[in-house]
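Usage example:
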Amino acid sequence: MSITPRVEKIRLNYVNAKPCISYERARIGTESHKRTEGKPVCIRRAQALYDCCEQLPVTIFEGEMIVGATGEFRKCGILTPEFSWKWVDKEMDNFATRPQDPYIMTEEQRKFVRENIFPYWQNQSLEESFVNQIPAETARILIDTGIIDNDSKWRQAVGETTPDYQDVIFKKGYGGIIKEAEEHLAQLDIAKPEDQEKIDFYNSMIIAMKALIVLAHRYAAKAREMAAQEKDPVRKEELLAIAENCDYVPENPPKTFFQAIQTVWFTQLGGVLSENPLALNPGRFDQYMYPYYQADLDAGRITYEKALELIELLWLKYSEWVWTISANTADYFAGYNQFQNMTIGGRTSDGKDGTNAISYMALKATEDVKTHQPGLSVRIHADCPEEFMAAVTHLVSKGTGFPAIHNDQAGYEMLLREGYDAEVAMDWSNCGCVVPHNRKAGEWTAAVNVNFGAALEYVTNEGRSRLTGEKIVNDVIPVSQYKSYEEVKDAFLRELAYLVKHSVVGTVAAQRLHTQMVPRPFLSACHEHCMESGKDLSRGGAMYNVGPVLTGIGLAACANSLAVIKKLVFEDKVTDMVTLCKALDANWEGYETLRQQAQAVPKYGNDDDYVDDIAAEIAMFYYHQCHSYKDIFGSPFNSAFMGISNYLPAGKIIGATPDGRKATEPLTEGVSPYAGTDTTTPLAAMRSAAKMNHALHSGGTLLNLRLGEELVSTKRGQNNLAAMIRSFFSLGAFHVQFNTISTETLLKAQADPDSYRDLLVRVAGYSTQFVNLSKNMQDAIIARTAHKSF
Amino acid sequence: MQQGGYIIQSQHLSVNDGDGIRTILFLAGCPLRCQWCANPEGFTSQAKVGFFAEHCTACRLCTQVCPQGIDINLNLERDRCTACGACTQVCPHHAKKYLTEYKTVDELVEEVKRQMIFFRHSGGGVTFSGGEATMQTEFLRALANRLSDMGVHLAMETSAYFDYDKVRDILLLLDQLFVDIKHMDDAKHQQYTGVSNKRILENISRMKELKIPIVVRIPTIIGVNADEENIRATACFVRDNLPGAQIELLPYHTLGLYKYEALGLPLPPERFVAPTAEELTQLRALVESCGVVTTETK
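Running the assembly step on the lines above writes:
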């Protein structure tokens, strides 16, 4: 229950309203681009943002204290045709009816964008350039195939960054950033070739910062205008306070908690309007907000309740804007998720525990409003206060899937391995799903999804897709010729290497285009080092340029499948490769006994080395493959086994697999077991997951477990859960997250969505409203084994 | 020779039989025949194969490997089953499964080692249960000594129906004890469990020398022992003979019935009824009024 009736009213609207598409940002931005043709692209993009901030409708919704809207609707998605308009053109007639993440867009709106916006971007969008430039061999497995997938890197902006509140925004204010940029400009020599690019960059940054100041001032004027007409004296005061805030921030460093939180939202809004990003992370919210809270408390300017109300209102702001994405992307990132990952708790740079009052308020706010955003992550270290652990397990017991629980030390080790200074590494926060990163870094944390199931399929089907029959790779021998388990495994790893290579090709091509076509003046201004380097974030301006992350999908399913081949074909000899592959061709029909035998072979997630060792070996191989390639900044690629909802679309294109899985069923996410096969205990699942070296997979690893809700309904149960988490982390693992909703509740919600609109579930690396998931996705969640034994 | 014994199950992540996260080792064999028993497979300390009909898909793999030529429904031909386990190896659905099987001390210690990290972080350990764990005395002694040397926190659930002096050295290794009093009236005790409560009550009185936390548990069943008179008598006995011990009322449950079916045994009488939450609260208050603290491990 929300802390105040005001918040509850906004919360109910958030829960019940359908998101609408606004084309205002696209319209104004397109008109702007028409006027700036021929200018440097960074200036054009900054100017488009400026024009939006000058012309977008300024709306203060009922009850709001934190203001700033992406468009005319309260729950609102925007369009970014400069990245891609084609998918919108192709799909928008079905926006309202598509199974995953539908939007409302009127016929009139559709007509308008088709006539007035899209024609301008014909042959000018990032998508078209990417598709035209990608080599045919790569395109065959990369473009909308589900084999390797990176469409979120050319149909969308990258996002995947964390504004630096600590060292830039709160310290300097946007006005201070402008001043500093002007000082740099004064030092540059336009006659020097290398300085010319910098001059453009600093100018683009200045325009982008001014843009948001203009928007803030328009909100101040609007609030004053509304205050003049407001009859309720309480609301009138509030509106005047809003006006005062918007006059002052983000231009100046905030003076109060209220102003700081408004600054956070304006910065988020600037990021959204400039590129509609995924994973624009709020970072370590408790660290940068606490000083303002304490100062206000000391001065008697704020109470706990007032501050919590503002935090809950911010949570709703994070949740009301919608990331507009293609149906394909929505399959991978299901549930209107914007991946704004917020990290609380954990150690500070000097190694001390950093939990404070705001850490607890953040947990409380998520419990109260049950919004799917921000993605709330916690860092747990060995000396984490018991009170914080209790607050974390309490929230777990509420069944929201939040928070995502991370090992402080493992995150630190991951960043050290990536070459961060120890001080910066210790100050890590999450990006998007479960990727440890830092606000000083530029990186692509979800560059490509790599379908391990495809590699397995080619090995067991002479290089062909089992569902379409299409020949994908040529170097595979007929199944009858495998003489040992090792030969099968090596063939699998060879195909996996092939997928990694083409993932690299696709990523580098996209990176190069990003530097040319979609520089990021606004978000570069939020980075400390871009100011010093005079370089855009997309061109390597950040202090650390960390290599792109290739996410492996289906690790457990492939380990289970190889275990079946090893045991049934080569050890017990109850079948042979040809028969097994025929069974797969037949989708197991007519091979029920063989399927039962395959299902009885040890499965990953039960602390059985027979199969867990195979998973660890695949993971290690994958790491070395990824790490052997470098991106355009010379940084090695990184591996990850994280979630998103990618294991569903990845499964859809894969025929039956030797583990007993039937065609098109979901694969496996992160380092989680195959749904329903971790039948021993969650402790065993944890031990299986901890057998690989998590610190190597610095793109993040993810374990999702379902617990029966009765397990954690008491304080004692929550304490035991805390002990489980600490045990798991002492084994070196990085992340675990729990769904604690009973199967009965999920089935009820599926049957009667209207009564369960606010039911949050953990998808994979994030939580979202259960009723907003497609039927397929809901079934996959229900299929996860619920552990009830304690 | 490698020491070992018959075990019903090693159950990890248990939290209701002692502190923290625990592994429960259910040892087979029991001198009592409680009519409500939830672990009837523990009656015998021999290997026993159960048949779980609802998991069976009639694939007949088990019939192909059975040296005795037993058909799918083992319970119809149970007298011929030697519990060789061939069927349990091939059944893909665990419809044929050992309900009790032989394990060596080493095997069990290896299993426990994998749980140690969870014990450490939760303050948990190992709980011996059954059956009646002391029935396989040498097996229990070996396990208890090995685990005690490893520094594992040890608890035991027992009926206290044993020769105290023969197991005293094992009891002295324990850190926590759960002991049942099923009925204070000896005639009724004999009627429902097949044995007299005399030795049980004597043994419980001697347990005060152990100086460890002890919980006396009453399997609370309407129609058997949940009447005020019996509960009061039990509480007074504990107050007078085992000072400091707590009492826990465990409501009767029917979660073990499927195992009767798997073994082809007759089901417990239907007149056994679990007390309602309200009745339990009243009975707890009664215990407290006698001067004994009640506890509930949930």
